[in-house]
Design goal:
2 domains; 7-stranded mixed β-sheet; 12 helices; 53% helix; 20% strand; globular; binds S-adenosylmethionine; transmembrane helix; endoplasmic reticulum
Length: 259
């Protein structure tokens, strides 16, 4: 009797927690629970499932249509953590302004942002995209080629970023990076930014954009950016991809190289 009354007393608290954190519950359901169930039911990874969907619903050679098909899958079928259409517009605008010739992407995943970046590049530009997970990279390679980008425009490098960055000059003949997009594991942002600084490949005006610096967040990366004095920086506030109630943001850093 008493324990029933105590349990009842917690009901309002539970309801208010559910209301307050409803978007996080939605995210947990879509990104974790549904994914487990579908992995079990289909025997495919989520990345392989989205590839099958894109293959059967999108038009080969049409990057816009491929991106829209990804967005449709991620909004209505299963959650997948790529930059999405809203934050994607910020990226599109920046690429249009900068017209970068040499671009590095860290964290290819299924190739959504790779296609988004590649379609915005000027003729003759080259995008190097780094992915350490071989299964994801196999999906990304097919998506990138399906969108119509050959190896001269997009080169996929299947290795961890901390091995790739120090060898970009030697292995790929890169002299300068005009634009870097970071969207891999957030704990790698700071060490990889330091490695890019040490590589000497960032020049005056090189831009580094880092996604998800608010959610899940990259505090040590942001602390370094604020303290090192090498960058002009700003945060573009935006909701998390496909979950409008969760706040997120992208950091835009312009390398100035002045300590
Ligand atoms: C959030 S997803 C990237 C989404 C992608 N940028 C998009 O918007 O379409 C993160 C990806 O980074 C990869 N990754 C994480 N840490 C990495 C690292 N240190 N080096 C290379 N790839 C990494 C993961 O395997 C995963 O596929």
């Amino acid at each position: 009797m008493v324990s029933g009354a105590i349990a009842l007393a917690f009901v309002p608290l539970l309801i208010s927690l559910l209301i307050r954190y409803r978007f996080y519950f939605v995210l947990f359901y879509r990104a974790v629970l549904l994914r487990w169930v579908q992995d079990f039911n289909t025997g495919l990874s989520r990345e392989e499932r989205v590839y099958e969907y894109v293959l059967t619903h999108a038009t080969a050679g049409d990057p816009e249509n491929i991106l829209d098909t990804f967005d449709n899958w991620s909004s209505n079928i299963e959650f997948i953590s790529h930059i999405g259409p809203k934050k994607g517009l910020v990226l599109d605008r920046l690429l249009k302004e900068l017209c970068p010739m040499t671009v590095l992407e860290l964290g290819t995943h299924c190739g959504y942002t790779t296609v988004r970046i590649a379609r915005a590049l000027p003729l003759g530009a080259r995008l190097y995209s780094v992915e350490m997970d071989e299964r994801n990279a196999r999906v990304a390679e097919k998506i990138i080629r399906m969108a119509g980008f050959d190896e001269d425009t997009v080169e996929l490098i299947v290795r961890p970023s901390d091995e790739v960055i120090p060898r970009l000059r030697e292995d790929f003949g890169i002299e300068r990076l005009d634009f870097v997009f970071m969207d891999h594991w957030k704990r790698c942002y700071r060490p990889d930014l330091r490695a890019l600084e040490d590589s000497g490949l960032l020049g005056d005006g090189s831009v580094v954009m880092a996604d998800n610096v608010v959610f899940p967040g990259a505090p040590s990366f942001l602390r370094h950016v604020r303290q090192c004095g090498l960058y002009e920086h700003r945060i573009h506030r935006a909701a998390l991809e496909y979950i409008p109630g969760i706040r997120d943001g992208m950091a835009e850093l312009v390398f100035r190289g002045i300590k």
